Every structure is written in structure tokens, then in C-alpha cells.
Amino acid sequence: MTPEMQGRSDDRLLDPAAFEAALRRIGAERYHNHHRFHKKLHGGQCSFGQVQAWALNRYFYQSMIPIKDATVLTRMGDSALRREWRKRIEDHDGMEDGLGGIERWLRLTDSLGLSRDDVISARHVLPATRFAVEAYVEFCRSRSLLEAIASSLTELFSPQIISERLSGMLAHYPFVSRDTLAYFTARPEQAQRDSDFALAYVMREARTPQEQHAVMAALEFKCNVLWLQLDGLWTAYVEGAAPPGTWQPTEASTVRAA
Ligand SMILES: O=C(O)c1cc(C(=O)O)c2c(n1)C(=O)C(=O)c1cc(C(=O)O)[nH]c1-2
Hints:
The protein has helices at 3-7, 16-30, 36-42, 48-73, 79-93, 101-111, 116-121, 127-142, 145-150, 158-172, 182-205, 209-238, 252-257. It is an all-alpha fold. Helix 2 (16-30) packs parallel to helix 12, helix 4 (48-73) runs parallel beside helix 8 and helix 6 runs antiparallel to helix 11. The longest helix has 30 residues, at 209-238. The termini are far apart. The structure holds pyrroloquinoline quinone (PQQ). Pyrroloquinoline quinone binds at residues 65, 152, 154-155, 158, 161-162, 187, 226.
């Protein structure tokens, strides 16, 4: 039993509507659409270098998602569950070379003048990005399957932010296009399918107040994973305190002339 399951053991079981409302409230209050870095990014106030920094760091998150999902898969004893979950890995890795979400993200970083070697090696990623993403993978490895699935529930809230991001970035930045942001065109439908599945799973499987609280705590944890990555970007590239060894922005003119 995890600390979350023990700590709130005197509470009552929520009925399905109240449980779902509690989960949606967590997203409404804590999802990363509220972060000031996203407001700046979507509102067109980021410099070219700040957009590069966001894309390079976010690649690390993207690249670890299939590893996280493969970790979750190893914990599923049921083949119907695995069949559903493995679609997540297929979406990111693609069914053949050159397809899939990771490749689409690399087309974005290519278009921003970042070298694939710099991006894929992750050697210039911020410590905040690395620690947050690794904590997410570790959470899914070490906590219960219920908590691991619950931690993906942030995707319930992603279709909205993705459409805001797509329209905001297209309206404000001449250096992106529908083509270079193609990752986001495919994503809302996949996120909807995945979060519908995860929500149905936790509604069915959280049968005690302790389990319901563990689900809520997993969603809060994941909101923190996303939030921390944006805190890191803000400190490094808005306040200008990028830690030694991390990526340094290039001038747009240098990149686009190259
Ligand atoms: O653009 C976004 O704001 C956003 C958010 C999230 C999320 O809420 O976790 C994911 C994604 N994108 C995404 O592209 C993605 O593949 C993804 C996988 C997962 C997950 O937890 O398994 N979250 C997200």
C-alpha cells in the first residue's frame, strides 16, 4: 500500500460522478495550460530561441513516453489491456521508419535549426526536464498499475491546450507552419482515445476510498511533472539562468541564413 492509500483511509468512497468531478477539478486547477511559459508561448511572446529551447527539452519528454508505456505494459497481465495500451507505443514510434510522433517532433526541431544529434542525444536538456521525466518513468515502474494508468490522465485535458497551442503558434510565429507542427494535428484524437480508456479503467478499478485517493494523487503528481518542466524553461530561458552545459539559444538570423 502506497503512502497515498494509507494517508486518507478514513474518507468515504465517492460515487462515479463525484470521483470524475474530483479528477476534472485537479486538471482545471493544476494542468500546465495555466503555466506562464505556456501563456507566453501560445501568445506569441517567445523569442525564436525560447521556442527552440521548448522544442528541444520537450523532445526528451516525447522520447521517454514510449519507454514509460513499455514499462506500464510489462505490468499488465491481461492481453486485452496490453492490446489497448500498446497503441500508445505505436503512435509514438510509428509502424515503420519515418512515421510516428517522435519522427514528427524531430521534423519540428529540424525546422527550428536544431541538429538531430543535439536533440536525440539529450545532452543539453535541462536538469529540471530530465529529473521530471525520469521521475514519471520511475513512478510508472514502481507504483501500482492503477496509479501508473492514472498518471496518464492529464491527457484528458490536452486536446484543449493543443488546439490553443496550434492556433496561437501559427498566428504568431513566422518560423512555424502547419507542416512543422504536424505532431499536434494527430495528437488530440489519440489523446482522446487514450484518456477515455484510462478514465474508464480508473473508474472501474478504484474500488476503495484509498484507491480513489491514490488515483487523484497520481494525477496531481503528473501535473507536477508537466509543471516542473515549464518552470525549468522559464528560469533558464526567460530569466536567463540556463545551468552550465545546457542548450544555449542561437540567433534566428544565423539559423535561417544557414
Ligand atoms: O502537448 C501537451 O500539452 C501534452 C500533454 C500531455 C499530457 O497531458 O501528459 C501529453 C502530450 N502532450 C503528448 O503529446 C503525449 O504524447 C503524451 C503522453 C502522455 C502520457 O502521460 O502518457 N501525456 C502526453
